[in-house]
Fold:
Amino acid sequence: GQNIDQPTEMTATEGAIVQINCTYQTSGFNGLFWYQQHAGEAPTFLSYNVLDGLEEKGRFSSFLSRSKGYSYLLLKELQMKDSASYLCAAHRSNDYKLSFGAGTTVTVRA
Amino acid sequence: GAVVSQHPSRVICKSGTSVKIECRSLDFQATTMFWYRQFPKQSLMLMATSNEGSKATYEQGVEKDKFLINHASLTLSTLTVTSAHPEDSSFYICSLEGQETQYFGPGTRLLVL
Structure:
């Protein structure tokens, strides 16, 4: 079965750091995606973690612990344009399907 | 540049009519495409996997006779919502499997009156 959990909402101020946690229980787990989705738009790819550890891409970093079924997305130096929904998705190796969490709405305030 | 396109981007129709949504792969040939549905403030729910040259595989609870999928070529998959009702109003998004990610189309917003 698939069970992906992430917080519903987070609020932070411009320039701050926010960490979005995601826990998963996924059969045939291959890796963990993070997507950004602005209201009314399709998701855009942020990161994909297959191995344990932290991967940094500019202001965004993503971490994965396969043994704990846990990932987080770290957003640094927050900007107003970062206000969006952030979706974690577990990728299955057997059928390549994605199982999405409900999404975390991040609101950045001035 | 865009990898996946969808048409139309937005459609309003009367209850009982059928609506066709196209998903095109622009950069490479896609033997597999995915169709998702997203209701307001909810996450993406996989509806079906579209396979080129064969029947689509549907997720549990998705009616295959209501949501017809045709994947006639390596660059085009279509989703037809038959006899649409107001509860079918949603954001429909297609995606295709790429290198280490899935590429999503821009989505089609369907409103059934």
User: Anything to note?
Assistant: The first strand of chain A starts at residue 2 and ends at 5. The two ends of chain A are 41 Å apart (CA to CA). The CA atoms of residues 79 and 93 of chain A lie 35 Å apart. The mean pLDDT of chain A is 93.
